[in-house]
Amino acid sequence: MNDYYADLGVARDASPEDVKRAYRKAARRLHPDVNPGAEAEEQFKKVSQAYDVLSDADKRRAYDMGSDPYAAGAAGFGQGFSFSDIMDAFFGGQGAGGRGPRSRMARGQDALVRLDIDLGDAVFGAMKDLTIETAVGCQTCEGAGMRPGTSTRRCDVCEGRGEIQQVQRSFLGQVMTTRPCMTCQGFGEIITDPCYDCSGDGRVRTRRTLTLRVPAGVDTGTRIQLAGEGEVGPGAGPAGDLYVEVAVNRHPVFQRRGDDLHSTIEVPMTAAALGATLSMETFDGPQSLDIKRGAQSGDTITLRGLGVTHLRGTGRGDVIVHTMVQTPTRLDPEQEELLRQLAKARGEERPEGRVSNPGEGGLFGKLRDAFKTR
């Protein structure tokens, strides 16, 4: 009779963990893909047979009592050799099979929703009510998936193991592969009386409302993560996360560029020439704008620290106001005469326009430089 303990290099009182550890070590050293050759292949078959017997409690007990399942000269790796054991040996995992029934409880998926906010909410932050529709645990069956008062039945096909084993022949001999049982979907048990509300899934879909704190400084595309507020998993498993993607609505006055807010103010021609103080409404209330004498279209006025709050860090951006000088299009006779007198006094009765490159100075150059550097 074969001495499987000697073949595997373990004592007769070795624990199942010692047996598996010894097999992994030997398989890494003797596997034909690693150590080709007839001698190594023969040794690999021996340790595989030894592991097949010593890793199975019933076979090991029968072997210790004098019965050898390979005494009849079974070929290859024997009836019980499992492909997942090779996977265990080389990768430390459980191979193709799950090694037992899988749990009905699993983590839920993450969810993504969109939230539209106003620019003012992005400047200072806000509290928003968010209504979402996600899966939650079924309260009727408390996530069990079965009608209250009923129980599951062990699968007759896999006998509760959750997996089916098949023996196939390969160049290594007989290889046993494992796949989930299709009858019970790998759970090992079958729900005979599913819950009416969740149809056996352990969760139902419902609409609920959350209160979300929108941090100051968010912009379109910013995602806010709410841990554990996503989809509840099958069997009332742990919920995934909820991601809220922010979309900032367009504002009628301000255009956001980074954390700065840009706006344009129209200045009458006389105010631009003589200077003036105008009032402008901002998110911090009305602010005074000092229009200097001789202001030109494209000039900018900066209001420090009145822009969007920095999302990461402290402080705020600026409000940048671009001036645009208004030229009157309709004049009554008296106004026209006054302008002619002004032109005569300034020697501009027959003006000569100054021609220049649009990119070098002038209105277009100022506008280009202002937006280029912001």
List keywords for this structure.
374 residues; alpha+beta; Helix Hairpins; HSP40/DNAj peptide-binding domain; 3 domains; four-stranded mixed beta sheet; three-stranded mixed beta sheet
Description:
The chain is elongated. It is α+β, with helices and mostly antiparallel strands and 374 residues long. β12 and β13 form a beta hairpin. About 6% of the residues have low confidence. The chain folds into three domains: 88 residues, Helix Hairpins, CATH 1.10.287.110; 78 residues, Urease metallochaperone UreE, N-terminal domain (HSP40/DNAj peptide-binding domain, Sandwich), CATH 2.60.260.20; 118 residues, Sandwich (HSP40/DNAj peptide-binding domain). It is built from nine helices and 15 strands.
What is the total domain count? Answer: 3
Q: Helicity, in percent?
A: 10-25%
Order of helices and strands: HHHHHEHEEEEEEEEEEHEEEEHH
CATH architecture of the largest domain: Sandwich
Return Rg in Å: 40 Å
* Largest sheet composition: 4 strands, mixed
Order of strands across the main sheet: 10-11-15-14
Number of helices: 9
Distance between the termini: 87 Å
| DSSP strand content | 25-35%
Look up the CATH topology of the largest domain: HSP40/DNAj peptide-binding domain
Number of DSSP-assigned strands: 15
CATH hierarchy, class of the largest domain:
Mainly Beta
Shape: elongated
* Average residue pLDDT: 83
- By secondary-structure content and strand pairing, the structural class works out as alpha+beta
The low-confidence parts are 73-84, 88-98
By CATH's scheme, which homologous superfamily of the largest domain applies? Urease metallochaperone UreE, N-terminal domain
